[in-house]
Structure formats: structure tokens, C-alpha cells
Amino acid sequence: MDVKYDLTSYVRVLKLASTPSWEEFSQIGLIAGAGIVLVGFLGFLIYAVMSFLPGGV
């Protein structure tokens, strides 16, 4: 385990990273929010179907 090599690779990655612009940040937020809503809606549909089936929840 070469600690010096690991640290230099971490520093190199941090130097390449940049702060996103407001437009990029808001677009990522919208996409992530849409994914969360979609997964929640899918879970609700599964719960609704299972509650109507005999022996469901």
C-alpha cells in the first residue's frame, strides 16, 4: 500500500474537480428529484396492487 501514490492521485482528482454552475446544479437537482418521485410512485403502485390482491398487506 503506497500512501504517497494514493495521496498524489487524490490531489490530482481534486485539482481537476470544479464547482458546477447554477444551471448545471439545478438540472442535476431536477433529474435527481424526478428519479426520487418516480421510485416513490413505483413503490406506491406496488403497494396498491399488493393491497388489492388476496392475502396482501
From TrEMBL:
One of its GO terms (molecular function) is protein transmembrane transporter activity. One of its GO terms (cellular component) is plasma membrane. Keywords: Cell membrane, Membrane, Protein transport, Translocation, Transmembrane, Transmembrane helix, Transport. Its main location: membrane. One of its GO terms (biological process) is protein secretion. It is a single-pass membrane protein. It is found in: Cell membrane; Endomembrane system. The chain crosses the membrane at residues 28-53. Essential subunit of the Sec protein translocation channel SecYEG. Clamps together the 2 halves of SecY. May contact the channel plug during translocation. Component of the Sec protein translocase complex. Heterotrimer consisting of SecY (alpha), SecG (beta) and SecE (gamma) subunits. The heterotrimers can form oligomers, although 1 heterotrimer is thought to be able to translocate proteins. Interacts with the ribosome. May interact with SecDF, and other proteins may be involved. HAMAP family: SecE (MF_00422). Belongs to the SecE/SEC61-gamma family. NCBIfam families: PRK09400.1-6, secE_euk_arch. This is Protein translocase subunit SecE. It comes from Halobellus rarus.
